[in-house]
Structures are given as C-alpha cells and as structure tokens.
Design goal:
alpha/beta, TIM Barrel, 10 helices, 8 strands, binds zinc ion, Metal_Hydrolase
C-alpha cells in the first residue's frame, strides 16, 4: 500500500513517527502551515516557521524515504490578530518556492470579518500564483461554515476545482461534493471522522476527489490513521486499486495542480546534514572491541564523525 498523507504537521512529530509511517507505506506528505497552539506575536515568527517547513522538515522526511511538501498561509485563527496580519505581505515571496504546493490552511475558525478578509485575500494570492488552495472548515457550526466558505470561493478568482475543502464529515460532504471542490477528511482518534465512518462515507459518496488525512499535530492524533483507513477499506470489500486511488492518486492529482510535486526522494543516508545539523544525537554507536570492556559509543569518535 503506497500512502500520501495530504495534511499532517510533522514539525510536531518525532523521528519515531517518520519511521512508523514509512513502515506502513507512507511515501509522501504535505504539511500545511498552521498555528502553534499559542499565539505568535510577530510576522517574523511565521517566517522562521515557513523556512523550517521548506528546509529542515523535508530534510528530516527524506531520511525516512518520505517526500515532503508544504502549503503556506496565514491560518484562520491568527487572521484575527492584527500583530500577525503583515505576514500577508510576505507570503508572495514564499509562494514562488519549489516545495510550496498550495496556499493553506486558510478558511474560517470563528467566522469573523477579519477571517473573511484574510480568506478572500489568500484565495486571490493562490489564483495569482497558479496554486491550488487548502481550505480548513470550522469545527463548530460546520454546515454554516462550509456554506460561507463555498460562497467566498465562488466569489474569488480561484476555480472550485482547485480547492480542497478539509475536515469534512457526514453533515458537510454532500454540499461540498455538489459544490465541485476536492473533499478532505481528517481521521482522528476520538473526534471528527474515524475509520469506520470514513468507509461509510466512501460507500455513499464514492471515491472521486476524496482525500483522507491524519491531520496529526501536537494534539491527540495518530500519524498512522491513513493506513488504518486503507485497512478498513479493504476489510469492507474495497479493492487495492480503490485504496490506491484514495490514499495515493487523489492527493497526487490535487497537489499536482501546483506543477511542483516531486515524489522521488533523494536518499540522503544516515548522518546527512542540513546546514550543518543532523538528526543524530551524539556519535553513532560502533561495535565494541573484543575484551576492551568499552561501549562503542563511549570511545573516540569514529573516523569521519
Ligand atoms: Zn491542520
């Protein structure tokens, strides 16, 4: 099973997660920029974060054979904080970068006038940069949030078939599908969709333009949820080709709209560095010499270390 997780916040996850993801079939991820769980206080904080999503994080992912791309934006929550708004002026110089495959996450959190303004402005940025957009839908008042989101997209210069509307569920899937956008589902351990509900949605609405993600971040979430959905699909009678469509070909098609998706991962090998930094901690362990009594990692650094 080859898997593309189209929405996961790897900055919040460990190398153990990358290892486990690779082992179950994850070969590609897209990491949308989002908030940190607490407010940023200046645009500079966004820029360092964007640089990490474009530099350090793809480097980490490559060590595990996983292709990493990102989507960049001012997220819905922080669109309400005037201290953060100047990042909108910085976005254009980031949206031209190779690994940026969409503008996102944009959309509504509390459906405020400030969020209206930021959403419209960033849909315009997506259109201007010929990028698709990843649009988050609110967790409260979901159907009203979806309707308002679709209205704003219709008024924008971005065609609906270049928009992925995320965090859908049974109450919003029909209107989103009728609207003509791509359909994103986040599968969480306790809330929103679970594997079985996801399978039921696929049975009712089909697989066309459907993307499934773990949306794993620093909260209660599971970076292996994509694989669990694939297994649940097979158990429910879907074919391997069906699973491949939902977990691989659909995300490749959507983010491929950017013209920037590169799925071959350069094998960086153990001990590789990014601007002088590596994911290793301490010198690599080496075999102990017979009778020396010393543990390899405690002796002099190996040649080349
Ligand atoms: Zn997210």
């Amino acid at each position: 099973m080859r898997i593309f997780d189209p929405h996961i916040h790897m900055t919040s996850r460990t190398t153990d997660d990358y290892e486990a993801m690779r082992a179950v079939g994850v070969r590609a991820v897209v990491e949308p920029s989002f908030w940190l769980g607490q407010p940023r206080t200046s645009p500079a904080s966004f820029l360092d974060y964007f640089d990490a999503l474009l530099g350090w994080e793809p480097f980490r992912a490559a060590q595990y054979g996983i292709a990493h791309h990102c989507t960049l934006a001012l997220n819905p929550k922080e669109a309400n904080d005037p201290r953060c708004l100047p990042v909108l002026d910085e976005l254009p110089r980031y949206l031209v970068k190779d690994r940026v495959v969409a503008v996102g996450e944009i959309g509504y959190d509390s459906m405020t006038p400030a969020e209206d303004t930021a959403l419209a402005a960033q849909l315009q940025l997506a259109a201007a940069h010929e990028l698709p957009a990843l649009v988050h839908t609110p967790h409260r008042d979901k159907l009203a949030g979806l309707r308002r989101t679709l209205d704003v997209v219709r008024e924008s210069a971005l065609p609906m078939d270049r928009v992925l509307v995320d965090h859908l569920n049974e109450t919003t899937v029909k209107e989103a599908k009728d609207g003509g956008c791509w359909l994103g589902f986040s599968v969480y351990p306790d809330t929103k969709m679970d594997e079985e509900r996801m399978v039921a949605v696929l049975k009712s609405y089909g697989m066309e333009k459907v993307l499934v993600n773990s949306a794993a971040d620093w909260g209660r979430s599971d970076p292996l949820k994509t694989r669990r959905v694939g297994d649940a699909m097979l158990a429910a009678g879907f074919t391997e080709d069906d699973v491949d469509q939902v977990l691989w070909r659909n995300p490749v098609a959507f983010y491929g709209l950017s013209g920037r998706l590169v799925l071959d991962v350069e094998d960086t090998g153990a001990g590789a560095t990014h601007e002088g930094n590596s994911i290793l901690r301490g010198a690599p362990a080496t075999p102990a010499e017979p009778g020396s009594g010393a543990r390899g990692s405690e002796v002099a650094p190996a040649a080349g270390a």
